[in-house]
Design brief:
- By secondary structure, the protein is mainly alpha-helical.
- The protein is 64% helix and 2% strand.
- The protein is built from 37 helices and four strands.
- The strands form two sheets. A two-stranded antiparallel sheet has the order 1-2. Strands 3-4 form a two-stranded antiparallel sheet.
- The longest helix is centred in the middle third of the chain and has 20 residues, at 213-232.
- The chain is globular, with a radius of gyration of 30 Å.
- The chain starts with 13 loop residues before the first strand and ends with a helix.
């Protein structure tokens, strides 16, 4: 197995953690009689050879020895080695042809492994046959033979997935593979294999799917679950162990089968909604728990009328199973206003489980608990009494203020308590910034002018660079401006003009006294000399000045041609508000709409203000409204507030179309 291993100059090679001189030790450990030693070696090789989807120069040097280990029946745990080889080769195909070529050179080893006595090895080899096939017709024949001879259910699933991969990768030979999938999707094959075949057909040949796909899939899921439940719960006394297992449902295979089907259905939101309805009404809590997370993927990524699904998520809150209830709470908390159909169920849970009002992470401060957070975020005023009790307690959740903003005017009764908490923020403490930021958001949301002294304290009560003064200065300034109280802070604001808070301070001073001459030089300095964030902030503030900022037009026009897309967008918005000339603005908006999806909300709001002048971009707005995918989901970037931001964009786009209606 290790012939020639000492002839490789491992010290000159590198892996993710540095020199590869330790690789021979790891390779030998893979053949150890000690299972813990083998598992540790495999883990470290996964991390060292494929770290962060990169392939290192030590990787192809390891491949021949990994093949030698995989080919020896006496080596335990060979399935993991085969999977490592597949990962090295598939990632190498995109990133390092040396690794790809090294695995292809030894790929013939996978052929006998597909018939290995060890089912785990056979299952791992199924995908390997497809990934590294040099003769597709031969590979398909091998898989056909294995399907006829195989008895292990997990290996049959692996072969089915390999057939789907084959059909997608080798179109010239796809028909025969699809025929096999069609055969497996119908009786007499069992429910799990039929579900797997339907998922692969949906990915590779949707035209070959049977009629009534969704009811068929739901029926197969329930048939499979009934058999699994019967096998998992043999007759016997209701012991503590059995109760604990029921509280921790887990069915990764079932989740994988249904995730594959959902992924294949893609933009077919109606079909996916019907499928989720069947999953969320399953008698099996494990199926419902899996469905909750699949519902999360649909809600995060796709637009549509999701009220029925949200209502079914609310129905899970009364379940006895903690994982199911907690999963539903987590998903509902992401929905904000869209969680309204589940508000009644959330309120019932809040009333029934006071212990869930807060949550404390290990060694952390208490935060708002999931059910109360979700109820607050959907704007339901029934959350107010519970929030009031928390605010009056000795340790109010540190993030509570941010959530109060979702209640809007309904949070007004909480204003005195918020004001009191804000006055207690310890200005020189490291915790001052997060505490003050959350409470300022609440003050701003409820428009509490009586809190102005407490806000002023944040700007004046601590030394420069300490506590809240520096960390939350921009938030405090914005709150004073929103409350119409910036004039009371004029001396403090002027003192901040030479600092990194210059743009916020200058904008607030303008809102207080309208003296453009005093703030224009500051904003121009920030626009031309500040860091990227300061430049964008200065552009936004100049836009608020409107025509009074006309002396800044040359600098704004230059900023609208900046290399940074965010700066261009902010400058273009300001150009419209200052000069009302669409010519330099619309090309920037058209480019930014595609290049920077998170900017679409601010662009749409500016287009609404432009009125008929926005008509040339009506096509972008109309396309956005007709797109099934949420705009942030299309970027692939996770966003905590992605759903409410997307809903706000849709609202703004409808307003744009309304103001340009009939304009040619």
């Amino acid at each position: 197995m290790f012939t020639g291993i000492d002839e490789v100059d491992w010290a000159s090679l590198r892996h993710a953690h540095g020199s590869a001189r330790d690789v021979p030790m790891w390779l030998r450990a893979l053949a150890s009689a000690d299972s813990a030693e083998r598992a540790s070696a495999l883990d470290v090789m996964y991390g060292a050879l494929r770290h962060e989807d990169r392939v290192y120069d030590a990787t192809p040097a390891c491949v021949p020895f990994l093949f030698a280990l995989a080919a020896r029946p006496e080596v335990p745990d060979r399935a993991g080695i085969v999977e490592l080889l597949v990962g090295i080769g598939t990632e190498g195909r995109a990133r390092d042809t040396r690794a790809w070529e090294a695995v292809c050179a030894g790929a013939e080893v996978f052929v006998p492994l597909a018939a290995d006595p060890d089912p785990a090895v056979r299952g791992a080899a199924a995908a390997a046959l497809v990934h590294f096939a040099t003769e597709p017709a031969r590979t398909l024949e091998l898989m056909h033979q294995r399907l006829r001879a195989e008895w292990d259910g997990c290996v049959l699933l692996a072969l089915t997935e390999a057939l789907g991969l084959f059909a997608r990768r080798y179109p010239a030979h796809a028909d025969a593979a699809v025929d096999l999938l069609v055969e497996q999707s119908a009786p007499p094959y069992d429910a799990r294999l039929r579900l797997a075949a339907l998922g692969q057909l949906a990915l590779a040949a949707p035209a070959r799917l049977p009629a009534g796909l969704v009811p068929t899939a739901v029926g197969l899921l329930r048939e499979r679950s009934a058999r699994r439940a019967g096998a998992a719960e043999p007759a016997g006394p209701d012991t503590l162990v059995r109760r604990i297992r029921r509280l921790r449902p887990s069915d990764e295979e079932g989740a994988h089968l249904l995730r594959t089907l959902h992924s294949a259905l893609g933009d077919r939101v109606a079909d996916r909604t019907a499928l989720l309805t069947g999953q969320l009404t399953s008698p099996d809590p494990v199926d419902r728990c899996n469905a909750v997370w699949m519902a999360a993927a649909l809600l995060r990524g796709w637009r549509g009328d999701h009220a029925a699904i949200v209502g079914l998520l609310g129905g899970q809150l009364g379940a006895d199973q903690d994982p199911l209830r907690d999963a539903a709470v987590t998903v509902l908390a992401e929905l904000f206003a869209l969680a309204a159909p589940a508000a009644g169920d959330l309120y019932a849970l809040v009333c029934a489980r006071r212990d869930l009002w807060t949550h404390r992470w290990e060694r952390g401060s208490p935060v708002l608990g999931g059910p109360l957070r979700a109820l607050t975020r959907c704007g339901d005023p029934r959350a107010v009494p519970a929030l009031a009790q928390l605010l009056a307690g000795p340790a109010a959740p540190t993030d509570l203020g941010f959530e109060l903003a979702c209640l809007g005017a309904a949070a007004a009764p909480l204003a005195p308590a918020v004001r009191h908490q804000l006055g207690r923020v310890p200005l020189v403490s490291p915790s001052a910034a997060p505490l003050a930021a959350a409470l300022l958001a609440a003050v701003r949301a409820v428009g509490d002018r009586d809190a102005v002294p407490e806000v002023l304290r944040l700007l004046s009560g601590a030394p420069d660079g300490l506590g809240a003064r520096d960390a939350v200065a921009d938030r405090a300034i914005g709150t004073l401006e929103a409350l119409g109280a910036a004039g009371r802070a004029a001396p403090l604001l002027r003192a901040l003009l030479p600092t990194r808070h210059a743009a916020a301070a200058a904008g607030a001073l303008w809102s207080a006294d309208g003296d453009a001459g005093a703030v224009l030089p500051v904003l121009l300095r920030e626009l031309t000399q500040g860091d990227p964030a300061s430049r964008c902030a200065a552009a936004r503030r100049l836009g608020r000045l409107g025509p009074a900022a006309r002396p800044a037009l040359p600098a704004l026009r230059r900023a609208a041609t900046s290399e940074r897309i965010r700066q261009r967008t902010a400058a273009a918005c300001a150009l419209w508000y200052v000069d009302a000339d669409p010519e330099p603005v619309l090309p920037v908006f058209r480019a930014a709409w595609t290049q920077d999806p998170p900017a679409r909300g601010s662009i749409a709001r500016c287009l609404t203000a432009m009125g008929p002048a926005a008509a040339p971009l009506r096509d972008l707005v109309a396309a956005e409204l007709s797109a099934p995918r949420r705009h942030l989901a299309r970027t692939g970037a996770p966003c905590r507030r992605g759903i409410p931001m997307d809903e706000a964009l849709l609202t703004a786009c409808r307003e744009v179309l309304a103001v340009v209606q009939g304009v040619t």
